[in-house]
Amino acid sequence: MNDVLSDHLKSLHTAAIDARNGYREALDDAGGKRMTPLFKEMIALHSAHADELRSELQKLGEEADQSGSFMTNVHRTIVSIRALFNGLDDSVLPGLIDGEERNVSHYNDVLNAPSASGDVKKLLVAERGGIEAAISRMHAADK
User: What are the respective helix, strand and coil percentages of the chain, to the nearest 5?
Assistant: First the structure.
C-alpha cells in the first residue's frame, strides 16, 4: 500500500513542480504587467504543495525529484511563444484554468484511491482546496 501511495504522491509532486516551473516562466515573460500578481500567487501555491508532498514522500522513505517532468519544457515553450506573439494578458486565463482543473482532477483521482487515508488525505484535500480557490479567482478575473 505504501508503494501505491508513494507513486501517487510522486505524481502529484511532479505535477506541482511542473506547474510551479510553468508559472515561473510566465512570470519571467510577464514584464511586470497585470498578470504578474497571479503568477506569483500560483508559484507560491505550487511551491508550498511541492514542499508538503516532498515531506510526505520523505516520511515514506522516498526521494522527491525536484526537476519535474518533460511538461516543464512544454510549459516553457508554450509560454515563451505566447509571450512573443500575444503577450501574457487576461487571454491566458482560460488555459491556466484548464491546467488547474486538470490538477484538481489529479487530486481527485488520488483521493479516491484506497491508499489515501488519514493525515495524507487531509493534506491532499487542503491542497486541492487551495487550487480550487485559485481557479475561482481566475474565473472572476476572466469576466
Answer: 80, 0, 20
pLDDT tens-digit series, residues 37-93:
999 999 999 999 999 999 999 998 988 877 666 455 444 444 544 444 455 567 788
pTM of the shown model:
0.86
> CB of 6 within 8 A of CB of 57?
yes
Which of 31, 26, 23 has its CA nearest to residue 103? 23
Assigned architecture for domain 2-141? Up-down Bundle (1.20)
Look-up of cell digits 480557490 = 133
Q: Structural domain boundaries of the chain?
A: 2-141
Rounded percentage of the chain residues whose pLDDT exceeds 90? 52
Residue whose entry in the numeric block shows the C-alpha cell 504543495: 49
